[in-house]
Amino acid sequence: MSARIPSLAPGSSPDATVNGLIDFARNGFGDTEMFGLLARRPELLKRAAAMFAYFLAGQGGLIEPPLLELMRLRGANLNACTYCATVRLQPVAGQVKPREAGLGLRDITGMNKAQAVSALRGTLDTSAFTPRETAALKLVDRIVVDPHGVDDSLFEELRRHFSDEEIIELVCASSLFTWAGTLNTVVHVSTGAEGIYGEQGVYATAN
To answer: What is the per-residue pLDDT for 5?
Structure first.
């Protein structure tokens, strides 16, 4: 399944900053297709990349990137974004991979969001994570499925492990990842030939 809008190839932009950001994606996620898509709107790419760098590249965020990557992967599968579920944050991939089994990830190839949510329901193995990590992962589940589900009980659980400032970042990071998943799903962004992942699973087709 090819993307509905083609991405710019690495090095093809007349803007050196844009080319640098596409390389940043290659080093960060092992693939350039999503950033290459955003590169068609350079000012949008620059702002979006700054957010990803803040959270995932250690450029100022309060939450450690390995926890954010666990959150991103759980959310990617719930959101049925095959691109997001395929790529891995390379600087922490070695730390995160042994812990992925606890996330209850499934093959979401061809699933829509409702099917993915159903497939992942009850699959999070909280015994594989610290109470702090578990609270953050529960937050992801609620945000992706229905943010109204973030009730007072979960908020109090979060407060046992995170400051208010950290909770703001958790919500913003999860929302950023969900936004990216929505973009990739609508446009059918797939991993590129220059990436490290090979063939990617397909997106669900509309009824």
So the answer is: 97
